Amino acid sequence: MNFFRKKYVWAVFYGLALTCLTAYTVLDTFVIKRVYSEVETEVSPVAVSEVSESAAESVSSEKKHSPPSGGKHSRPESRGKDEKNETEESEKKTAETLSENMPMTSAVISENSYSDKNFTVTVTQYRTNDTDVYVGDITLTSSEFLKTAFAENVYGKNITAKTSETAGENQAFLAINGDYYGAREKGYVLRNGVLYRNEAAEDQEDLVIYNDGSFEIINEDEVTAEELSGAGAWQIFSFGPGLVENGEITVTADEEVGKAKASNPRTAIGIIDDLHYVFVVADGRTDESEGLTLYELAEFMRQLGAETAYNLDGGGSSVMYFNGSVINKPTTNGKTIKERSVSDIVYIGY
């Protein structure tokens, strides 16, 4: 009898321990917040590019490195004392320039557009494949106005906020959700020139935005985050896949993201020409909007003229924010229209 009683007690104890472990794992994955680092002081990509070029002139050709994959972007070199001083002077100059560039007179603003001397944003609603699609067409004078931001201004795990909240805190004129880096343990995370995560995910396609504003889609198996940073990468998004490269669709008709449904709310970003971009958000999962497949999204991006286009986090995360308001209809379950809290955003602003 004692034997069976002891066996029963151990079984109960084991069951409780397993339940507690499972609960902790779920909480650690989805609930418990962990702050890894606060966002560092922002530096302009233009300033970094200028410093890189200046430093490169003072370094012998034997010490220079070639960018990976034949890249054409400037590469920051190791800095000595003089170079550090030069960097600080350049950053100070950039901050002064940005201050001077802030519109001193009223910008031209309408219901669907914003324009000042530094950038123009026009938002247009389209209807395709029984889906409402919102397009932000953006023309910049400098890549420094294409920015990213973390929820609560920190890099960490389960640190989230609504896209509209993060956009408002950063005075964004136009914003979309990013790649929700916090939902994954691997995949490069580089934001505004700062490398936060360098652990590669297997067969992961990333979008790299360089300090000159150009786009490139890379595979993490083929190049390290440090190499990309050294070649002038300013933002790296790890979600995907790539949709368009060199003006050609790169996904198949039956390709999908993980276990996502075929038709979904979607978010994408693309480049048409130098400093000419498109932010795209498609609604889905409602009676009004069915949603798009990846291939349909890629077709739409190509029709807009995108030379390179990339798929960001979708589903309930898909949000477009313009001039103080959310303009699409975000939903997770198709029943309620509301934003999902996410880790990060991409935006246009100062």
Tell me what you see in this structure.
The protein is α+β, with helices and mostly antiparallel strands. It contains six helices and 21 strands. The chain has helices at 2-30, 45-57, 81-101, 163-169, 225-230, 294-303; strands at residues 34-38, 108-110, 113-115, 119-128, 131-140, 146-150, 154-157, 172-177, 189-191, 194-197, 205-210, 215-219, 233-237, 242-245, 248-249, 266-273, 276-282, 308-312, 320-322, 325-326, 344-349. It has a nine-stranded antiparallel sheet, covered by helices on one side. Helix 2 (45-57) packs antiparallel against helix 3. The chain is globular and about 85 Å long. The relative contact order is 0.16. The model is unreliable at 20-30 and 51-81 (pLDDT under 50).
What descriptive keywords fit this protein?
350 residues, alpha+beta, five-stranded antiparallel sheet, 6 helices
Q: What portion of the residues fall into strands of 2 or more residues?
A: 25-35%
Main β-sheet, spatial strand arrangement: 2-3-4-5-17-16-18-14-15
- Mean pLDDT across the residues is 82
Tell me the structural class: alpha+beta
Number of strands: 21
Q: Helix amount, in percent? A: 10-25%
Subunit arrangement of the protein: single chain
Shape: globular
Number of helices: 6
Show unreliable segments.
20-30, 51-81
Biggest β-sheet description: 9 strands, antiparallel
Global Rg: 23 Å
| CA-CA gap between termini | 75 Å
Order of SSEs: HEHHEEEEEEHEEEEEHEEEEEHEEEE
